[in-house]
Amino acid sequence: MNMRVLRILAVAVAAITALGATPASAQFFLKPVDLSGPRVTGAEPGMVGQILPQATQAELDAALVWNLRAALNVAALQCNFEPTLLTLDYYNSMLKDHDEELDRAYKTLGDYFIRTSENKKKGITAFDQYGTRIYSGFSTVGGQLSFCQTAADIGRQVLFSPRGSLDKIAHDRMYELRRSLLAWGDQAYRGYFALALPRLPNFNEDCWDDGEYRSRRCGDFFASTGKSG
């Protein structure tokens, strides 16, 4: 067996082990929202983190691949609260199995910033700033569950896809990945529910006589009301 097959088997074993140790809780929502969308080119607002003036299609392709890498990296760090998602395993497998594609995207994108900057030094700085920006752009709180679930699904697709396919996956699923950063489904309502407690009778012994409540002595039959949540 080659190393790629061995890695796929290793992740599969990890998934089986995780499922055996933990209930299948990666399905976070009572009714998942369909976040899928159209294939993107990279020129759409927000798809690659920022507008890239004068970028060629090859450079936009590289930006999409690099954004995909950034997203799966963030998922590897932020989604370990649910081990059955295997986001860390998927990310590490991508780095090994698709290293040539990632290196090519890195070089193409780096060359873009040098080409569009006043000089090489400023281009390198601009590329570093871009990298920081896209990584922070995939960090989410309100949409953590949908992001982690979507990133895990994409990571699984990457794992079982042949070398040379990252470009296609990034084009096909970046719209979905970006949408997943928002609060969808059940998570959109977290913190907005208030539990109304029933009004309770006044149980003070002095207020009762042979099972009958004495309102003249104690006033309102209900002692208190309350809300919590």
Question: What fraction strand?
Answer: 5-15%
Shape: elongated
Strand order of the largest sheet: 1-4
Please outline the major beta sheet. 2 strands, antiparallel
Low-confidence stretches: 12-25, 191-197, 224-229
Gyration radius, rounded: 26 Å
What structural class should be given to the helix and strand makeup?
mainly alpha
Order of helices and strands: HHHHHHHEEEHE
Secondary structure tally: strands: 4
Annotation field: number of helices: 8
Describe this structure in words.
A two-stranded antiparallel sheet has the order 1-4. The protein has a two-stranded antiparallel ribbon with strand order 2-3. The radius of gyration is 26 Å and the shape is elongated. Helix 1 packs antiparallel against helix 3 and helix 2 runs antiparallel to helix 3. Strand 2 and strand 3 form a beta hairpin. With 229 residues, it is mostly helical. The C terminus is likely disordered.
Topology readout:
Elements (H helix, E strand, L loop, with lengths): L2 H19 L35 H22 L8 H11 L1 H17 L4 H18 L6 H16 L6 H14 L15 E7 L6 E2 L2 E2 L1 H4 L3 E7 L1
Antiparallel strand pairs: 1-4, 2-3
Descriptive keywords:
single chain, 229 residues, mainly alpha, two-stranded antiparallel ribbon, 8 helices, 4 strands, 53% helix, disordered C terminus
Short description:
The chain is mostly helical.
